[in-house]
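Hello,

Our lab assistant flagged a job as stuck in the queue for most of the afternoon. It eventually completed. Since we weren't sure the result was trustworthy after the delay, we are filing this so someone can double-check. Below is the sequence as submitted and the structure that was eventually returned. Let us know if re-running is recommended.
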Amino acid sequence: MKLNKKLSLLTFILFYSWAAIAQHSAQPGYFLFPIKPGVRNYLSGTMGEIRSNHFHGGLDIKTDQREGLEVHAAADGYISRIKMSTYGYGNIIYITHPNGLTTTYAHLQSYYKPLGDYVLQQQYAKQTFEIELFPQQGQFPVKKGDVIGLSGNTGGSGGPHLHFEIRDDKDRLYNPLLYKFSEVLDTTPPEIYNLGIHTLNIYSRVNQEFGRAEFNPVKKGNNYVIADTVYAHGLLGLELQTNDRLDGAANKNGTQEVTLFVNNKPIYNHYIDQVPFELSRQVSQHINYDLYKRHGRTFQKSFIDYGNDLPLYKADARQGRLMVQPDSVYQVKIVAKDSYNNSSTLSFVVKGQAPSFTKTLSKQVKKPSVDYQIVGNVLKISATDTSSTPLNVELFMGDKQFMLIPSYTKNSTSVSLYDLRAGLPDSILFCGILQSLNLQQAVPPQQEVTVKNDYLKVEFGKESLYDTLYLQTQKEGDVYTIGDYFTPLHQAIKVTITPETPITDKSKAAVYFLGLGRGRGFTGGKWDGNSITFSTRNMGKFKVLEDVRPPSIKLLSKTPVQIRFKIADDLSGINSFRAELNGEWLLMKYEHKTATIYSEKLDKSIPLSGKVVLKVKDVAGNEATFTTTI
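-- returned structure --
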């Protein structure tokens, strides 16, 4: 224990030393701001913002809500990589610099002429729109300030802007704001919206309850407080909802650094910088993933959760978890800091209070009900009854029966807790209401595990899970439920199912992810007899569907300069398209946000003239053909 404390202190000293080196190694003035250099600029996104499955890796620079602004090379170097893609970064340029760093410029409308001509020639040579090229070092040299393209809205962009990154030779992302661009002003400290406190084992409580409690801070100047004392017990994890704002902009940006102090000692810190691409998906363990997926609210954990290997953290022996003892007082402070060292502080007091049975009743309750949820390793059962005396919940495990005594009752809802590590129950019974739990197996992380029942097989790899999963499955008709949508996977799992409904044409049939709403996402799969095996990085509902309808094609316009179409598919999605003019391949560029494709000639001095044939194929292999004459 003494050794752990010494290592913890050393870790924090090393961290602060590293952080200081990281910030001072960025040479102000080395990089030129790539949009309107020397003029006041505004950002819509910063380093470390939480996105659906990754950390935002650079700056989103506003472009006056339009396309076509000149994009400048940030420093001397050479263009080392170019890529054109329908999704993701869209049109992007990579410039490698003498200091070993690489800058990227994404969502471009177009490249500067020598580069654009080269890319166009390669597209025609390879007969493909989507292309990735790696020019030789001396092929496209650039000087600091050179115009390398025009800003746009290509790829996965949600509006016109330039996405700008700084990477090292290991593809780790660095925060560009550390280079102190004078074009961006920020004297505004981060905002703190909410605090979450999460019980981390069966003995933990927050204000005498098990689960997650949320608190709304009160702002006093640049600092925040929780006015009431928080009474708690056991092992707790804290979560913070915070955003940063830059001067003169309404956008909610990412807060780069958070430090947790308990009784004036730091026990946790995260500093979002140098995020490796291969680990970026672990953002799902950095945040409260369940809350984010359900409500779109981003709470960043102030402790290192299991399975999280991101190199962003420094913490004590408990990895930032707070252990609260009865009758002890803890002065808690959380400091949120942005890239310009503006900071805000949240302060509150936690007082240790041993768990005790409490009871409040509600006259609104008219009939019994029972529900449950799995919180970590704990099965939390909430049972509501009209009785003034709380009733036990019956738990069944094979031929065994157990009585769970309520831990507390709130508004006539009694909460009973069971540690799932003691064995997996089959069902629960309360006031005549029997509820099956469908718990198949406890699946530990870092192990290859196969779970099989009479309607599916699920194969977990060593890297599939972050933490132990208490797997629940269900089959309703031809809909298969595997786990739930609110539990993240790190790497894919492999699933095999055998649909009961006969499949007319297996070549057109595949597995689709149903998600929460009415959407259907193509997942795919490989048939073996009447069974289909697929891989997925999502848990939730799946169904086999047949796609027998070809894509739709609509001619939007045709002139001797350009021809445009709208293409769409109602199920599996667009897979490929090919256009020919008088039998010769014609480049068609694809903008998925508007579902349009449009032509670009290699030799623009020759007008489009003759017979145009467009073929569009969906993922299921259905093909549509459209023929016209210009």
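-- support follow-up --
The delay was a queue issue, not a problem with the job. The result is valid. Residues 552-629 form a domain with the Immunoglobulin-like fold (CATH 2.60.40.760). The chain has five domains: 43-179, 191-352, 369-437, 441-546, 552-629.
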